[in-house]
Amino acid sequence: MGRRMLAAGVVAAALAMAACGGGESGEPPSAGEGYRVGLLLPESKTTRYDTFDRPYIEARLGEVCADCEVLYRNADSDAAQQATQAAELLDQDIRVLILDAVDAAAAAAVVTDAEARGVPVVAYDRLAKGPVDFYVSFDNEKVGQVQAQSLLTALGGERTRPIVMINGAPADPNAAGFKKGAHSVLDGEVTIGREFDAADWSAEAARTGMAAAITALGAEKIAGVYAANDGTAGGAIEALKAAGVTELPPVTGQDAEIAAIQRILAGEQYATIYKAIKPQATVAADMAVAAATGTAYTGHVTSFTDNGTAKVTSVLLPPVAVTRANVKDTVVADGFYTAPQLCTGSYAAACHEAGIS
What we know:
This protein is α/β, with parallel strands linked by helices. The protein is built from 13 helices and 12 strands. Strand 10 (303-306) and strand 11 form a beta hairpin. The chain is globular, with a radius of gyration of 21 Å. The protein starts with a helix and ends with a helix. 50% of the residues are buried.
């Protein structure tokens, strides 16, 4: 209870700083003595988590708390397994938990258990239910709006044929935000011929659903595909190719996975959403240190996000649409990928045409 009261003080201090115009890049909080930080990530089907999120979080924690130890688990899309992992970490006396929930509602039990043990929780990327202390992610409705607008841009004046809409995992609260944002742009502008959710963000689910949509609508009748992330975009593109489509319609995505960027360069995928993971991971690590040590988080101006239990102090970062025209100026310029990583084999010529070398 004492640490929870301390966390409430941290929130108040952070809000006071924000009200005074807290800067975009304040000093990291004081780490204090070394302690254990729990890190729970949701799945490995999306390559970003083990390739980027985990290393960036661990690196930042190493910078601001050199004596801290990170205890990491990945739930492989299993909410029950994540609950077991959380209990294991809490039993190992972690001081703070960074949680990217498999299932936001199911994670409420994890967050409540952590609160009972005096362990603050930083919700990372997905907002869990329960008494969460901090939250860092991107503006999910804005992500959906940017995805949808990129699709409309690609369609141009071709608004008579239907599109297919492939949403994300129903258990992921972010997916609902993406869907809401996308509908706010697409509704009334295009006809949505088929719409479905891809369980667990599975490319296979997207491929199966897209194949059914092709059968129902006709491959030549599909003007474009709204795919909520790059894995589902890849599944949709595979289904289109399997149906004999040689001139692919524009397909959206999200996460800027290397395979998606290569597809964009090759003209197979129209766009993805680049959510700069390093700043997000840095905020999460700094929030964790602030929560663990009872110091104010001042790195970014904060807002509130209502998770149904509390108004959670939050940092929501802006998304960026990436098309072939700005690959060089976004993911390459930021060092997210290097030219040698992208320009392998058959993609070398496409890289050259895009000015990437």
